C-alpha cells in the first residue's frame, strides 16, 4: 500500500514510517523543512514538501495514496491560544484529507487522546471530550469518523497522555522539560492521579493495524500502561536529573494544567482482543530510566 503520512518525523511519526516500511508498504511523507526532508529520505520514504497548512499539497498527497495516516499537530503548547491554533490547522487539514478520500473506500487514520471518565479507566466505547482545551480536536475526530458513511474507511487511534521513546515524549516529556528549566521535578495536586502511556514503537504497530484492517468509523486505544501515578513519574525524573521532587500549583503547568491534574487511566482490552495488538516495548517508568542529567 502507498501510504501518505503527515507528522512523519516526530516521536510517533518516525516509528510509524519505520513500521510501515518494514511491513512492505511504501511511504510518501510530508516535510516542512530541509531537516525533515532529509530524515524522511534517509528512512527510505518519499518526500512531499509542504506543511499541514498547505491544503493543496495535502490534497495532492492523498490523491496519490492508497491510504493516509494523519499525525501532524503543532508543537507549541505554551498558551491556550497556541493550542487552539494547532487544533484549527489540524481541523482544516483533516477536512481536506477527508474530502479527497470521500467515496474511495480508502483508509484515513487519524489520532486523538484517550478520554477520561470519572471513577474508572476509559474504554474505546467512551466518547471523546468536545469542550475544554482539546475539545475542538475531539469534534474534529468525530467528524472524521462520521466519514464512514461517505465512503471513507476512517478510524482513530487514541493515544495516551505519554507516548515515549528513550524517556522522551508526551506529558512525561513535558514534566521532564519543565524540571530541567525550573530545577524542580514537579507534579500537580497530590500526584496520585494516573496517566496512561505507550512506547512509540508499540503505538506505531497499532497505526499500521488500523490502516490495514480496522473497520470504518472505529476508535482504538494505544494503551500499554493503564495508569502510572504522576508522583511516581516525577520521582523517576527527579532521580535521573538529580532534582528535588515537589508538588506544584496547577497553574505552573500552563494550558494543560487542568488536564495534568485529572485522574485519567485508560484500557486497551478491546483493541488487543479485536486487532491482536500486543505491546512489547518497555513501560514508561522503565523507559524514563534512560533519561540523562
Automatic annotation (TrEMBL):
Residues 114-136 are annotated as: Disordered. This is NAD-dependent epimerase/dehydratase family protein. GO terms for molecular function: aldehyde dehydrogenase (NAD+) activity. It comes from Nakamurella flavida. Residues 3-215 form the NAD-dependent epimerase/dehydratase domain. InterPro entries: Epimerase_deHydtase, NAD(P)-bd_dom_sf, NAD(P)-dependent_oxidoreduct. One of its GO terms (cellular component) is cytoplasm. PANTHER family: NAD(P)-BINDING DOMAIN-CONTAINING PROTEIN-RELATED (PTHR48079:SF6), PROTEIN YEEZ (PTHR48079).
Amino acid at each position: 500500500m502507498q501510504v501518505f503520512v503527515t507528522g512523519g518525523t516526530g516521536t510517533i511519526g518516525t516509528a510509524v514510517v519505520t513500521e510501515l516500511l518494514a511491513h512492505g508498504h511504501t511511504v510518501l511523507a510530508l516535510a516542512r523543512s530541509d531537516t525533515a526532508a532529509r530524515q524522511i529520505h534517509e528512512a527510505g520514504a518519499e518526500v512531499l514538501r509542504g506543511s499541514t497548512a498547505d491544503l493543496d499539497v495535502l490534497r495532492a498527497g492523498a490523491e496519490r495514496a492508497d491510504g493516509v495516516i494523519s499525525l501532524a499537530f503543532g508543537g507549541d503548547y505554551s498558551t491556550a491560544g497556541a493550542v487552539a491554533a494547532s487544533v484549527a490547522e489540524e481541523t482544516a487539514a483533516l477536512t481536506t484529507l477527508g474530502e479527497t478520500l470521500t467515496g474511495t473506500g480508502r483508509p484515513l487514520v487519524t489520532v486523538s487522546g484517550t478520554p477520561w471518565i470519572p471513577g474508572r479507566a476509559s474504554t474505546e466505547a467512551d466518547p471523546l471530550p468536545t469542550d475544554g482545551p482539546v475539545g475542538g480536536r475531539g469534534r474534529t475526530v468525530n467528524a472524521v469518523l462520521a466519514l464512514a458513511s461517505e465512503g471513507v474507511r476512517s478510524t482513530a487511534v487514541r493515544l495516551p497522555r505519554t507516548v515515549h521513546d528513550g524517556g522522551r515524549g508526551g506529558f512525561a516529556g513535558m514534566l521532564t522539560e519543565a524540571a530541567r528549566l525550573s530545577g524542580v521535578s514537579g507534579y500537580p495536586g497530590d500526584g496520585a492521579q494516573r496517566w496512561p502511556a505507550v512506547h512509540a514503537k508499540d503505538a506505531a504497530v497499532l497505526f499500521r493495524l488500523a490502516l490495514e484492517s480496522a473497520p470504518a468509523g472505529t476508535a482504538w486505544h494505544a494503551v500499554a500502561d493503564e495508569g502510572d501515578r504522576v508522583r511516581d513519574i516525577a520521582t523517576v525524573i527527579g532521580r535521573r536529573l538529580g532534582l528535588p521532587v515537589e508538588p506544584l500549583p496547577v497553574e505552573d503547568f500552563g494550558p494543560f494544567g487542568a488536564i495534568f491534574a485529572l485522574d485519567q487511566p485508560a484500557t486497551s482490552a478491546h483493541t488487543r482482543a479485536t486487532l491482536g495488538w500486543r505491546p512489547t516495548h518497555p513501560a514508561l517508568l522503565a523507559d524514563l530510566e534512560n533519561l540523562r542529567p
